[in-house]
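Please fill in the sequence for the structure shown.

STRUCTURE ENCODING:
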C-alpha cells in the first residue's frame, strides 16, 4: 500500500470511530466543544473544527446528546454537551463492539506470522529467558 492510500485508510478508520470517541469524551461530564476538539487533537485523532460541530449537531438530533448554556468569564455563554440516557446506552453498545473488534483484530495481528516486523508491530523477545535463568544458577 503506498503512502497516499495508507494515509487515506488511516483517516477513514479515524472517521469510522469518531462518534464513539466523542461519546467517550462527553461521558466524563459536561464538556465544551472546543475542549472536545483540543482533546482529540492531543490524542492525535486529527479532527478539524469544521468536522466536530456538524457531528455534535447530528448526535444531538439523534437524541444521544443534550446541551446546556453556561456563562463564560471570558466571553459569551458556552454550550456544554452531555450524554442523554439514550447516549449512555449507545456508548455502552459501542464500547462492547469496540472490545470485540479490538480482540478480533489483535488476534489477527498476533497470528500474522510472516510480517509483524514489516508492519512495525514487534513481539516481545522471550526465547532467551530460560537461557538467562539457567546461566544465573
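FILLED IN BY: designer on duty
SEQUENCE:
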Amino acid at each position: 500500500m503506498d503512502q497516499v492510500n495508507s494515509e487515506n485508510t488511516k483517516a477513514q478508520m479515524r472517521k469510522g470511530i469518531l462518534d464513539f470517541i466523542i461519546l467517550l469524551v462527553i461521558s466524563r461530564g459536561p464538556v465544551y466543544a472546543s475542549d472536545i476538539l483540543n482533546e482529540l487533537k492531543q490524542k492525535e485523532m486529527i479532527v478539524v473544527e469544521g468536522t466536530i460541530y456538524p457531528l455534535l449537531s447530528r448526535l444531538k438530533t439523534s437524541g444521544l446528546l443534550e446541551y446546556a448554556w453556561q456563562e463564560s468569564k471570558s466571553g459569551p455563554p458556552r454550550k456544554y454537551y452531555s450524554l442523554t440516557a439514550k447516549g449512555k446506552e449507545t456508548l455502552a453498545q459501542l464500547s462492547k463492539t469496540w472490545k470485540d473488534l479490538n480482540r478480533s483484530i489483535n488476534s489477527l495481528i498476533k497470528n500474522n506470522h510472516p510480517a509483524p516486523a514489516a508492519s512495525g508491530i514487534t513481539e516481545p523477545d522471550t526465547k532467551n529467558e530460560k537461557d538467562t535463568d539457567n546461566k544465573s544458577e
